[in-house]
Write a structure and sequence with these properties.
It is a single chain. The protein has nine helices and twelve strands. It is an alpha+beta fold and 336 residues long. It folds into three domains: 62 residues, no CATH class; 107 residues, no CATH class; 100 residues, no CATH class. Strands 1, 2, 3, 4, 5, 6, 9, 10, 11 and 12 form a ten-stranded mixed sheet that branches. Strands 7-8 form a two-stranded antiparallel sheet. A hairpin with a 5-residue loop joins strand 11 and strand 12. Helix 2 packs across helix 3 and helix 3 crosses helix 4. The two termini are 37 Å apart.
Length: 336
């Protein structure tokens, strides 16, 4: 009965029959174990939750994005909390050949591409509650052109490196192209559509400033996508990312002004960028923060480097985080 009371806020968006079916399915999902299937739900739903009811419910077109937002606004939202917009993809293994969108997707848990279904979710994460609330979930269905490009990239990666060297100098006829004008990939195009729809839905109610994505999106195209939506991107760069300090030396007197200074050496990070040092047992952690340049990005990046050293073996490791928000302090950036 408590679940049914919580769902009453959804009444304007769905019918009373759908709401009653929804409550049966929610109860069944909470009590059942193992993989959730329509047959399993019908066995655990009890009275009013037959298999035919499950079929009717899942055949009903529902405005899920609106339902997520209405439920969040009525029962979850706290005006005093700070919220981040976070995106991530999840892969569910699935056998067979008939399921819509069935393809091979890379699953981090397995460390390799697996047959299954992929879903991309945008969630609101409360900094104070440390909880995530999904707002928009869509299945990833790749087009034929996208699959062909992915296969071509894999074949090229497996092929032997070319021994022919390109001649010195700039290729004849090449022209300068602004970095921000790079077209979005089909993947980023799908995310942009989700992002625009969600921001339009919550416009004027919840102020959002940051979009958090994992290291897969640590490139200039994703940053351009976030800035188009008036959001700052928070993500992770490759551990060997070529970062440069801004050039502060004198002008040479001829030609364009020099932009890039010396390249960052991750084994010998500049002391002036050190913000904090902590030691826990035999692990030393150092936090470095600086505004650095990357040749693939149009704007300076707010970079935080977390360098860890094993004081017993002197083994080193580091992680490179970044944000387009140049005013964000290092500890909030690491926390986000």
């Amino acid at each position: 009965m408590d679940i049914l009371a919580l769902l009453q806020c959804l009444q304007p968006a769905v019918t009373r029959t759908t709401l009653r079916q929804f409550s049966r399915i929610a109860m069944a999902m909470l009590v059942m174990a193992g993989r959730v299937t329509m047959l399993g739900l019908s066995r655990w739903a009890g009275t009013g939750g037959s298999y035919r009811t499950m079929q009717r419910f899942f055949a009903t077109v529902m405005p899920w994005a609106t339902l997520f937002w209405v439920f969040f606004r009525h029962h979850v939202y706290r005006p005093e909390d700070v919220y981040l917009l976070v995106g991530d993809e999840v892969v569910v293994t699935k056998a067979g050949k008939i399921t819509h969108g069935l393809d091979r997707f890379f699953a981090s848990l397995y460390g390799k591409p697996v047959p299954g279904l992929a879903f991309f979710a945008l969630s609101l994460v409360s900094i104070q509650q440390r909880r995530s609330f999904p707002m928009r979930v869509e299945q990833v269905v790749r087009s034929d052109a996208e699959k062909a490009a992915s296969k071509a990239k894999a074949v090229a990666k497996q092929g032997q490196p070319s021994t022919a060297k390109r001649p010195r100098g700039r290729p004849k006829g090449s022209k300068n192209q602004p970095k921000a004008a790079t077209p979005l990939t089909p993947e980023l195009g799908r995310i942009t559509a989700m992002l625009d729809a969600l921001l339009h839905l919550i416009a004027g109610f919840l102020p959002l400033t940051s979009l958090v994505l994992d290291g897969h999106f640590g490139h200039s195209n994703a940053l351009h996508m976030a800035r188009q939506a008036h959001l700052h991107l928070i993500s992770k760069l490759r551990c060997d990312a070529a970062l440069y300090c801004p050039y502060t030396g004198p002008y040479a007197g001829r030609g364009p002004h020099r932009k890039y200074g010396h390249k960052i050496d991750y084994d010998h990070l500049p002391v002036q960028y050190l913000k904090e040092t902590t030691v826990e047992e035999h692990i030393q952690t150092r936090f470095y923060q600086a505004q650095l340049l990357h040749k693939e990005f149009q704007q300076p990046l707010n970079v935080v480097i977390i360098a860890k050293t094993n004081l017993r073996t002197q083994a080193r490791a580091h992680v490179v985080l970044f944000s387009s928000d140049l005013e964000l302090a290092y500890m909030p950036l690491v926390d986000y």
